[in-house]
Amino acid sequence: MLTGAVIAAVVQQPLLVAPLAFISHFLLDMVPHFGVEESDTAERNNHPIFRTVLFIDLAILFAALLCVPILFSGEVSWWVLLLGMLSAWIPDAVWLMHYWYDYKGHVRKEPNRLTKFHQKIQWFEEPHGLIVEVLWLTGAVAVLFVVSS
Fold first, then answer.
1. pTM for this one?
2. How many independent structural domains does the chain possess?
3. DSSP percent split of the chain into helix, strand, coil, nearest 5
4. pLDDT classification of 38: cutoffs 50, 70, 90
5. Residue 25: which domain range?
6. What is the pLDDT of residues 5-22, one digit of tens each?
7. What angle do helix axes 48-71 and 130-148 make, rounded to 10 degrees?
């Protein structure tokens, strides 16, 4: 989401922000990042480390949705920032749905082509991939401060 905000702050054209932010999600998923590898996704979803990081991610997500458009709307409209953030995040909405289905014990539908592609490009998901995510978070926030100054 913060990458979407950075794109919005730099590009500032809503018709470009949405598709660029959406595409950025898949590009970033090709970069090593956090994950807990289990043979079964339901097993992974119940892993304590996975659940902890998911909770932290969701807390950051909601805090960012509230704070970023307010804090960094000096040079770009708050709604363009929000558009970029949501466009960058929306591909992950499917994973929340899968998590919910696993949590409830429901059988999931067969993944569509986009979901299969999304799974395939995430070639490196390991616990120490969290380092990459923290560095990216720090860099994105720094860029937002520079652009909004």
1. 0.84
2. 1
3. 75, 0, 25
4. low
5. 2-148
6. 999 999 999 999 999 999
7. 0
